[in-house]
């Protein structure tokens, strides 16, 4: 394995900045790695070789001109295909958008380009980010580099697999109910879901607008923090974007790495553990909690009584919003059109197009949402789910009265086998059990590796109050430091 | 909670503009029944006096000065469409001939 691909993002940027290596060499090393392993991993839906080398050359030229480079200039990144890229096909994992070449960039795409980040290509995902294994992609099955017969999680499984297999040091995912944290956990890397509203959603293909949030993946906590600071911040193009300062997550990651958590109170959420959790996951989690205590944190148990209803509330709210958001795929303005023979009506063509263009999980969720929002059922389903959402937010508020952060396993099990849950939607949904409460409450949460269970990675989830993303990074960096080297270093060679 | 029939799935599919097949009707009826049965748990929580949450952050209408500024290029936008004609989206007929 080339030395250049095993470096962290921070190390890579430092070497480029110091003139020890060119951005082009770094980009080429990663493109070569993709060429060597991606037939087995299938993390990428498309690799943009020309665009990546052009972006890298621009960084090298800026360096040659003596310009000051940003903290991630020249660092390659894998971008989830839900994020719009000007001139580069964007499908959100769906046949209905196959061949769509967007005429604009998402705000986070613009920010990354301006920071000199080199976008290597677009990664595989569950169609419209609906899924927990990336098996709902219309195009490819992505494999977990720790065990190619297992899923890399989802819906951002292409991004997690790309980082875990050293195809890129950084990636962007999006998290609606756990789609960054769960894939990060099962591939042994770091993934953070920022506070809702702190990263612009402009140019994210919408799934569930009150929940969707983009965030970073990295092999280290510091790398994720560096990317977080590039993408976060107010955006007038997103009406839910918060006009507040970005949490100091890079400083927090550096501070946490010193391993001193004195004065911090950590709450173990009683409802996110016990029955239904794999024993190896529970053991790794317990060990992580002991590490936090050993570093000076006060670890207590807290109860969040309504978290047990998060799954039910989420699988009403998210499909309801999805059924509305996905109405835009009407065969008129972009994407697929099927059955337009000159005789059929617009409505017939629309129905045939959506039938042909959407996969089964998307259809299921559209119909669940349509049901939950229909008159006669609205109050009992959607309305009641929104009230549960309030109660979950109150549980968090109560817990944060006494705790600085809350912790839980990031997933109830390690990576499951490909094919194991595809025909059982409820089993698939259960993969998000631990991550859903933070999504519904809009609070930040990170997954950081906390050991192995039967040779497969386990993630520790650290949740913090809204806008206190820095606490997630501080605690995660401390956990990471307690293991010495990042756990991903023990992944089997590809 | 109600069992979801094939007829109900057909109705939902019609509302959602999905031309589902006969085979799908049966599969989806079974699956939607299981899912809706599970998510109906939200009804176990007594929440009469609890306000609903639609967004976790305060959502206010965001306004900007009404000043002209460049938008996406028309031809670039139409190039993404399945069919365009005379600078417009071309759509299948929306009215019956007799109408």
Tell me the Rg of chain B in angstroms.
Answer: 23 Å
In the CATH scheme, what's the topology name of one domain in chain B? Histone, subunit A
Order of helices and strands of chain B: HHHEE
The separation of the N and C termini of chain A measures 9 Å
CATH class category name of one domain in chain B: Mainly Alpha
Describe the sheet with the most strands of chain B: 2 strands, antiparallel
Task: Give structural attributes.
heterodimer; A: 494 residues; alpha/beta; 11-stranded mixed β-sheet; 17 helices; 11 strands; globular; B: 99 residues; mainly alpha; Histone, subunit A; two-stranded antiparallel ribbon; 3 helices; 2 strands
Task: Briefly summarize what is shown.
The complex is a heterodimer of chains A (494) and B (99). With 494 residues, chain A is α/β, with parallel strands linked by helices.
Walk me through the structure.
The complex is a heterodimer of chains A (494) and B (99). Chain A has 494 residues and is an alpha/beta fold. Chain A has 17 helices and eleven strands. Chain A is globular. Chain B has a domain at 6-43: Histone, subunit A (Orthogonal Bundle), CATH 1.10.20.60. The two termini of chain B are 43 Å apart. Chain B contains three helices and two strands. In chain B, a hairpin with a 2-residue loop joins strand 1 (84-85) and strand 2. A two-stranded antiparallel sheet of chain B has the order 1-2. The model of chain B has no long low-confidence stretch (mean pLDDT 90). Chain B has helices spanning 6-15, 22-39, 74-78, and strands spanning 84-85, 88-89. In chain B, helix 1 (6-15) crosses helix 2. Chain B is mainly alpha-helical and 99 residues long. The interface between A and B is large, with 70 and 55 residues.
């Amino acid at each position: 394995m080339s030395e250049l691909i095993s470096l962290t993002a921070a190390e890579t940027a430092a070497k480029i900045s110091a003139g020890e290596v060119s951005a082009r060499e770094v980009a080429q090393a990663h493109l070569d790695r993709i060429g060597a392993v991606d037939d087995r991993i299938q993390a990428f839906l498309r690799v943009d070789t020309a665009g990546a080398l052009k972006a890298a050359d621009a960084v090298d030229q800026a360096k040659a001109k003596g310009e000051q480079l940003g903290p991630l200039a020249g660092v390659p990144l894998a971008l989830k295909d839900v994020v719009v890229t000007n001139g580069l096909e964007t499908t959100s994992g769906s046949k209905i958008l196959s061949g769509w070449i967007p005429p604009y960039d998402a705000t986070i795409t613009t920010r990354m380009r301006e920071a000199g980040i080199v976008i290597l290509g677009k990664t595989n995902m569950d169609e419209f980010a609906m899924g927990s294994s990336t098996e709902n992609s219309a195009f490819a099955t992505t494999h977990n580099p720790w065990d190619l017969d297992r899923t890399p999680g989802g819906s951002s499984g292409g991004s997690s697999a790309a980082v875990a297999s050293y195809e890129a040091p950084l990636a962007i995912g999006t998290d609606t109910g756990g789609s960054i944290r769960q894939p990060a956990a099962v591939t042994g890397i770091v993934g953070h879901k920022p506070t809702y509203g702190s990263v612009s959603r402009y140019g994210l293909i919408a799934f569930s607008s009150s929940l969707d949030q983009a965030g970073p993946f990295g092999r280290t906590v510091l790398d994720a923090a560096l990317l977080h600071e590039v993408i976060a911040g107010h955006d007038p193009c997103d009406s839910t974007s918060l006009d507040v300062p970005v949490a100091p997550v890079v400083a927090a990651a550096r501070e946490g790495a010193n391993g001193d958590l004195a004065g911090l109170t950590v709450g173990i959420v009683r409802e996110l553990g016990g029955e239904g959790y794999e024993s190896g996951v529970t053991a790794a989690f317990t060990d992580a909690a002991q590490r936090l205590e050993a570093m000076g944190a006060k670890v207590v148990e807290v109860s969040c009584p309504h978290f047990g209803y998060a799954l039910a509330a989420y699988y009403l709210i998210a499909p309801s919003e999805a059924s509305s958001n996905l109405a835009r795929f009407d065969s008129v303005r972009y994407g697929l059109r099927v059955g337009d023979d000159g005789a059929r009506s617009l409505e017939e063509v629309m129905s045939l197009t959506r039938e042909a263009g959407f996969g089964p999980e998307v259809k299921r969720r559209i119909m669940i949402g349509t049901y939950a929002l229909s008159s006669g059922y609205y109050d009992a389903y959607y309305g009641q789910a929104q009230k549960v959402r309030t109660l979950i937010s109150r549980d968090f508020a109560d817990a944060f009265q006494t705790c600085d952060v809350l912790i839980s396993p990031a997933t109830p099990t390690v990576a499951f086998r490909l094919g194991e849950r595809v025909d059982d939607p409820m089993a698939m949904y259960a993969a998000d059990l631990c991550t859903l409460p933070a999504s519904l409450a809009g609070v930040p949460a990170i997954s950081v590796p906390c050991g192995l269970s039967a040779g497969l990675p386990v993630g520790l989830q650290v949740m913090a109050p809204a806008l206190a993303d820095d606490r997630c990074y501080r605690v995660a960096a401390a956990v990471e430091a307690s293991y010495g080297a990042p756990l991903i270093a023990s992944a089997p060679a590809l | 909670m109600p069992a979801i029939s094939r007829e109900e799935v057909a109705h939902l599919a019609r509302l959602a503009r999905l031309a589902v097949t006969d085979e799908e009707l049966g599969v989806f009826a079974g699956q939607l029944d299981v899912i809706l049965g599970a998510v109906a748990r939200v009804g176990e929580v007594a929440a009469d006096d609890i306000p609903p949450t639609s967004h976790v952050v305060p959502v206010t209408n965001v306004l900007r000065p009404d000043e002209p500024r460049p938008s996406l290029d028309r031809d670039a936008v139409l190039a993404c469409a399945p069919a365009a004609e005379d600078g417009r989206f071309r759509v299948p007929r929306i009215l019956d001939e007799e109408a």
